[in-house]
Amino acid sequence: MIKADLHVHTVLSPCGDIEMTPAFIIAKAKEFGLGIIGITDHNSTLQCAEIKRIGDKEGVFVLCGAEITTKEEVHVLAFVDGQENLEKLQVYLTDHLPKIPNNVGFFGYQLVVNEKEEIIKEEEYLLISAIDQSIEQIERFVHSLGGIFIPAHIDKRQNSVLSQLGFLPPGLKADALELTKNADTDTFMLQNSYLKKYNIIKSSDAHFPGDFGEVYTKLNIDTPSFNAIKEALAINKLPI
Length: 240
Ligand SMILES: [Zn+2]
Ligand SMILES: [Zn+2]
Description:
- The chain is an alpha/beta fold.
- The chain has one domain (about 1-235): TIM Barrel (Alpha-Beta Barrel), CATH 3.20.20.140.
- The protein contains 8 helices and 10 strands.
- It has a 6-stranded mixed sheet, sandwiched between helices.
- The chain is globular and about 50 Å long.
- The structure holds zinc ion (ZN) (2 copies).
């Protein structure tokens, strides 16, 4: 069993704390014994490559992706394997994100930083806008890249598939569903029994240093890899 936290924001997310740099996140992952972390900045993958590079050195497997805001204002986690697919996902996000300049004073910094915490890039457009693609379009695109698609914090009262649509669309191919860290999984499943066929994960949705370590999902994996994670998510009833 490997501890996985598949929902971590960095300093690239406007709501992410300035301390959430690549080196800091990998150090925290090691401190809390997390073998796998998913990097999920809002509508951008641009911080992933550097965190993966550091993670590879330090023995933390980094799943690269983003937390995408659909046009229905639903948050979904998307992960892809390899640099080529990551670039395709980034092009898709750039093409579909509205060109609204970020107001740093109001929303916060959107920075890409390297291992030495030097600023490489400042993202100009506000990353927390909704992109102009539906949840179904995003799911199909992510799966066309062989990716992993997980509706995020589905029990949340805002920006979740249940808050925005009222139900999980029957044709949607989710690799797992994420519940918020304080959710009672059994009660939620009793109330939403039609979701029983899906695997449930819990993640930190960390935006601040103090968010780490409390919540994770144990995945039944010997050696972490993208495919091993995808397969582990496909097995029902993970211990949480
Ligand atoms: Zn979210
Ligand atoms: Zn998030």
